[in-house]
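User: These chains co-purify. Model them together.
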Amino acid sequence: MAEAIKIRATLNGEFAEVKARMAHIMETGLRKDPASGQVIPAHFVRQVTATLNGNVVLDAQWGPSVSKDPVFGFRVKGAKAGDKVAIKAVDNKGETLTGETSVA
Amino acid sequence: MNELRRTFLKRCSTAGAVVWVVGMLKPIWALAAEWNKAAFEASSLADALKNSGTSAAVDSKELLLKVADHAENGAVVQIEVTSKIPATTSIAIYVEKNPRPLVADMSFQNGAEPYIFLVTKMAETSRIRAVARAGGKTYFTAKEVHITSSGC
Amino acid sequence: MEPAQIANLVVWCGIGLGTLFGLVANRCNFCTMGAVSDIVNMGDWGRMRSWLLAIAVGILGTNLLGYFGYLDLGKTAYTGAVLPWLAYIVGGACFGVGMTLASGCGNKTMVRIGSGNLKSLVVLVFFGLAAMMTMKGVLGVIRLQVLQAPLFVVKIESGQSLPAILASLSGGDLKTMQLLSACALALLIAIFVFRDSDFRQNFDNKLAGIFIGLVITAGWYVTGHIGLAENPDTLEMTYFGTNSRLAESMSFTGPTAYFLELLSYWSDTSSRVSFGIATLIGVAIGSFIYAMRSHSFRLEHFSTADDMLRHIAGAVLMGFGGVTAAGCSIGQGLTGVTTLSLGSYLVFFSIIAGAATTMKIQYHMMMREAEA
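Assistant: Joint model of the three components:
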């Protein structure tokens, strides 16, 4: 089931400033559970794709060093108010998160 | 006999054309690049750079890395990278002393600016390195960030 | 609004509220130390009733804010799950002893500074220094390793506020519990306060009680509602303008330490004037305004070496006690108790016990000297 990615997209001059936040544990796979001594398996987002009106603008690969509940931002030139920004994140287990908003 | 062959050939090519067209209609998400396992799982900066193909990057003043000198919390270090190098196609971020130095590698298309904002974990005081690919060449810049409490 | 603008607004409101607090406290001679000493030395409950009235008004106001959604009472320093009871008892008692020796708590100290009292200026510096040493410095070792050792800490899963505990025990709704317990407690306290005919006729005590209770409520509104907004960098709801990054109201121990820190590290851009520091300065300003208008401003100094030693020792005990108890007679004893947090009530009674014991000892020593 896809969970929401919180996105804020505002027009700043001739480009859209986009900031997004998603809830994800971003577990590195290198930590040990203090109680059991077992290694906590890796669970982190690997792929993030962002589109503007359906066209891919950002194609990102992430590793486990990205922070928990990651926040990231990018800018797109030539965007107009009302344009649709959509973001999809896929993690190493194949689970996906999505979010969508319009440029304000 | 010829009638049959002609019809058969026409049907095959139509079918072939249909299969070809359907094949082209790949979901837009599937155009995303393959995850570079070797680079992301490298445990040393040198290996991560080598597996990303960016070991030969040259220092550039046109690559702007904005990050605090002192980060109180190593779990959330805010990084901003802007590339003034023309034709920049991607920016990658490394935390040199992290157990997994390569943090992220981001490509820009269709009007996206060569700019990225990202929060990363830092295990200890370390240099943060930004690497940009532009016009077939690679460039980098780095800055030391001190942390008070570890993030990993 | 930009985060910087929100933080500024919260800080300016802090100066305003602090000024009002200082003005009224000076005008009405509101004093938590004085409240205890009046009872111990003269059997007069007037100023204690005033303090209790402020608490009653604060309890009602604060929990109404919570009920109507203007304040998340779970997001304060007083309502967490961790209850370090030994630290609270020892810290509260030390603070009670300290404020007696130093002629007043953090709030009274600022009021006296506004009136020109140089003794209180000395107290302020030692108070702040001792607080800093207890927060992050050498005295902090005793606090963390002995007083707050795991053996002496209790965890209350639901949070230590009375409504939260009642809600988890009865399975009832938190907001309903907030409303019920707040109204019940405020009513009980108000009945006790107004039963006394002397109090009913005393304008100063009534004014102070009601006004200060409203100031506490306003503080929660400013930090917990006005100051709560989405941080554009992290897209998280953040409390802007406070040192604790949570909702706050009147408190003077932490702010004194942060104030000295701010003065020392001004050029470090991460240091900012916070709500707490603003209220601290505001109290002195308000008191000064009143002192000038009533022509009561007078420079006062230590009369003897003994006087100075007592004040310094008191100030150090206040700093240590206030940080260890996570608040002073105002921080815990007025603001904390409005959240109906169990820990705050523990500190409240410990402070009074410490102060009363000290006053009794002082009285006996004075009697013995008189006889000699």
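Residues 3-371 of chain C form one domain.
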